[in-house]
From TrEMBL:
This is P53 and DNA damage-regulated protein 1. Its main location: cytoplasm. GO terms for cellular component: cytoplasm. The keyword Phosphoprotein does not apply. It comes from Bracon brevicornis. Keywords: Chaperone, Cytoplasm. It comes from the Eukaryota. It is found in: Cytoplasm.
Length: 75
């Protein structure tokens, strides 16, 4: 009976750690996607000829100076 309880506790700890690992992996993927989107946006700003551009900040669509938008992406 005690062996079963020890095994059950061990499996529970393994499952908890597996859940943490999966959560961390999803977080890394989300951060990598954001980094890639920022890189793509920075490249598009560098290619653009005009001095103003449209950017999205959360749910907002803003028209701002290209240099300010580039500084915002760098942050």
């Amino acid at each position: 009976m005690k062996e079963q309880q020890v095994m059950l506790d061990y499996l529970q700890r393994v499952e908890e750690k597996a859940g943490e690992i999966l959560t961390d992996k999803q977080e890394v993927i989300a951060l990598d996607k954001r980094r890639n989107d920022d890189r793509v946006g920075m490249r598009a700003l560098q290619k653009e000829k005009g001095d103003k551009c449209w950017i999205t900040v959360g749910p907002l669509l803003l028209k701002m100076n290209s240099k300010k938008a580039e500084d915002l992406l760098v942050q």
